[in-house]
Amino acid sequence: MANQSKEMESFIRARKKVERIKDYYAHVILFFLGSGLILSLKDSALLWIESKGIKDPEALTWFEWNIILIPIIWGFIVLVSAFFVFKGRSNYFKRWEERQIRKFMEEEQ
To answer: Distance of alpha carbon 7 from its chain centroid, rounded?
Structure first.
């Protein structure tokens, strides 16, 4: 009976991890689509603002930089999210390093 509850707890934890990874990948896809849309519409937005009578170059530069900063800040958030989603998975580099050491040791023998 205790074995079943441990398996169920393990299943629930694994399912939550998979759900977090799935949500992260959806966030990455949304980031690329959203950033692409924002940046592709930047010039149109600037032209629209100019058509409304705003001709001040400083205001237009400020507006342009704000449009550019949205994907930059969002990208930083995506990177921080990756750290929290994939924490504990950094063993990849350790395993790669061990494989390379064994490979070079075998080559010398």
So the answer is: 31
- What pTM did the predictor assign? 0.70
Cα gap 98→82, rounded to integer Å: 24
Domain count, the chain: 1
Q: Which two tokens stand for residue 54?
A: 């705003």
Q: In this structure, which amino acid lies at residue 38? A: I
Q: Which domain holds residue 58?
A: 2-108
Amino acid at 87: K
Number of H helices, E strands in the chain: 4, 0
Rounded mean pLDDT, 47-62:
89
Q: Are 89 and 20 in contact (CB under 8 A)?
A: no
The answer to whether 78 touches 27, Cβ cutoff 8 Å, is yes
